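Contributing new complexes? Match this layout with uridine-5'-diphosphate.
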Amino acid sequence: MESILVSGGAGYIGSHTVKTLLDRGYKPVVLDNLVTGHWQSVARGVPFFQGDIADSHLVRRIVEKEHVSAVIHFAARSLVGESAEKPDLYFEENTAKTNRFVSSLLESAVKRLIFSSTAATYGIPEEVPIPENAPTSPINPYGFSKLMIEQSFSWLEKAYGLEWIALRYFNAAGAALDGSLGEDHIPETHLIPLILKAALGQREGISIFGTDYATPDGTCIRDYIHVLDLANAHILALEALGKGIGSGVYNVGTGSGYSVREVIETARQVTGRTIPVVESPRRPGDPDRLIAKVAKIQTLLGWSPNYSSLEQIVESAWTWHLRHPNGFE
Ligand code: UDP
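Output block (do not edit by hand):
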């Protein structure tokens, strides 16, 4: 069994990927500092180390003890608003600590790495759907912190033979189909969980941030990708690197988008609940439309989404919220 270190494996996307790794016969090993992750989300029997990716001694010890051969690196801060208020925190926690993490891995002779990147590296796109070779011009420190990491990898590849794939996620959403894992962020800022909290009666309603965008119904369009499809993309990327596919950047999205109003309407249908809406001003930094061009990942990694219809995304998230109205407890 190949042993894969998953940093941030107690987080939202990380925990789903750990579950998928187990299903595929890998041995995941989790490293998470639990600042935003939940120990309850780590599957039973999975070796779990609570600590920091920048703790070189710990990282080297885990690699040796668990015979780690490759890494999927999720651990990061991911709140856009917080990043604008504290850019230095993001450059430290995401960029600087990843650099230390990768140095420790290379010292331990681990050279295969899948990295959790983001569509926020593009900024406001000139072209939609966005191809991977579009200009990168992030409009928030979160996106910039991730872009710097991607760029550093090319140099680490040249100098030390790092083999890497960065997956630029569009809008991760949904939950494990049995409702055992799901999204539990504090504070929650994402559209679908907030809508479902309104459906549960935990919030008065949902604010639509901007109704005057250049889209058919005036609300922003995003490319929502099911977390299980994202998890699968990481495993295909890992296997592709193992087969000698070159390093590089891949979008992960569906190639189609839904507006905020469409998401709310789907949630009304799925839940059968009333979801009051408040039309609110725009949120700073939201482009009208963000949709991935997905030809590269489909062709080179053989990936395609299986769970990412909007109905499946919302249904699975609703199952999670019904089973865990207060998140992981
Ligand atoms: N959004 C909204 N109300 C909310 C939260 C989000 O209208 O309470 C909108 C947001 O402006 C964006 C879309 O929903 O157009 C998705 O936002 P989210 O924060 O989920 O993801 P992002 O696109 O920022 O990664």
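Reviewers usually confirm one structural detail per submission. For this one: The domain at 3-173+225-252 is CATH 3.40.50.720 (Rossmann fold).
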